[in-house]
């Protein structure tokens, strides 16, 4: 009967998964019919680490559980799948029958018995998955089962039994479904939230697209960047040429048609979905308007995406979204007041249960210009419920920030009448859940631009110690718990390429890039267009919001945007601003100003002065020689020559691989961490950063904090101030003593 139930469950799940996919499919290629290239036998392989498990999966005690989520694109039909499982058995296996159960969506797919003879050995196991059991969002579970009974030994921690390598992988072979041309599925097939891979997006533009067309394309690219988030977007910009395969988006106006595309009569802002010519397995989306204004309206209609049906949609006049306020990017923690964990968590599971429960994990980003020196820690007001802990059970909770422990406490402290947990009260239900609250101070030194907050509950006296009382234990973190960073000031020493690479700052201060201008070469090619679109997609992923109000300009008109923060794109031969502002560039090895010459000489020859310009982790630009032709990309940050209150990022590139190198450097976590200081060079997969001679600040601090900060960065100034203070005190004291002595002598004379 149990086997029959499993079979029925597999059949039901598989039928639902196929039905969901076929509901949006125009046609599915029969297995007996040869498929077009790319339609049959698409193989994908993802390690557990790529699927979000960034730690070694260690299993303690009986009934330990671990899970790995993965998705299947809705336009792909799985044919078969497998797991390449790498695991290690501990030196000591519990007595009795011990086994590792592998489940897919609650259905058992393998059972691995662990024997005493396996102790200390490493194994690789190939596990076949039934394609019928695969659905859109899948959950792979590993359950350790042992009949050894209660493994709790007082004073002795339970050892781990199995350790699963996060290099283990899930491999799927699938077939592409021929989707219908119905726009109600938008943004399919271009983006599918079930897909964890980076989004590859091809945008087809005219031979020489103008700035308004590029602005519409950039808005669409930034929207995809916000959707893709951590996945990243690699935009291919094609000039007047359709790709031979893959999905593509073409932006067309009556004035600038594209060769090879037969468009319907353009009567206004409209979009149309059709099969890619020569490749019926992929789609071509036509975004059209009679002029640039209507083309932008069509893009705005796509971004709103409401009430689209059929293969062709005409849009009425579309209104622009309201302007954003500073520091209100959807992907950032708000600085306006307390933020609930529910706002950060999205689909996070706030309830955990079992003897070894999962971790409640939350991701959040911070504005990179928060001034943390001397400020108070960030308060986390945590509210939670947990199964009433038996007296002396040792049940506890721990809060980690970026994998470092911040606070921990025992759940049975309610037995202490002086503890704050004495305020707990039993809920009026049979589970006897107790309510607790705790204020936790998150250290500012542990916070970064990207953060992970974890709450662990432990229902055992020791790690992995499982008692019968803990088998039904559960805990819930209240989504109404709050984080508050509203007390922190905004202040940052610039240039800071780490802030730009990780958060898009200072341009992302306004999520819609209202005060940002991108300065492009006048004579542009595909490489320039691709760099522009990839940059805007990157900024969209950092803010979680499209670039509705970004400005595009050419070098001749840059002065008209002096009040904006600028991003200058181009090669040395095509971007005039790179030569016009050469003396302002931090990579300039021949500074024109006498101050820069003195600073350069002091940094090279004298170890003591200018400590505030020295970074022990970075080489100074004064000690390096730069040739932009040696790098794929060079990124430089400096104060705007047009307005000293504004910042400039200059991205200079050369070679056919420049845009790919820039995208990969901005996407890979290990390379992203190397963007620092004022100058960063990208060559292949290597990023090197340098500290410049110039620095400036943005933001506001109180005068006292500014004075303290200035003195701490310049010890010689502190000594000078102290000396002047001592001299002034001595001079005033001397004058007071002389006047006192004169008064006393005069009084004695009068007395005589």
TrEMBL record:
Which InterPro entries did the record assign? Cell_synth_B, Cell_synthase_bac
Q: How does it sit in the membrane?
A: Single-pass membrane protein
Task: Name a biological process GO annotation.
Answer: UDP-alpha-D-glucose metabolic process
The signal peptide stretch is 1-19
Self-association or partners: how does it assemble? Answer: Tightly associated with the cellulose synthase catalytic subunit.
Q: Write out the entry's keywords from A to Z.
A: c-di-GMP, Cell inner membrane, Cell membrane, Cellulose biosynthesis, Membrane, Signal, Transmembrane, Transmembrane helix
Q: What is this protein called?
A: Cyclic di-GMP-binding protein
A cellular component term from Gene Ontology for this protein is: plasma membrane
Cellular location(s): Cell inner membrane
Organism source for this protein? Answer: Frateuria aurantia (strain ATCC 33424 / DSM 6220 / KCTC 2777 / LMG 1558 / NBRC 3245 / NCIMB 13370)
Q: Which family does it belong to?
A: Belongs to the AcsB/BcsB family.
In terms of superkingdom, the source organism counts as Bacteria
Concerning Pfam families, the annotation shows: BcsB
Transmembrane annotation, as ranges: 716-737
What is the protein's known function?
Answer: Binds the cellulose synthase activator, bis-(3'-5') cyclic diguanylic acid (c-di-GMP).
**Pathway, per Swiss-Prot/TrEMBL?**
Glycan metabolism; bacterial cellulose biosynthesis
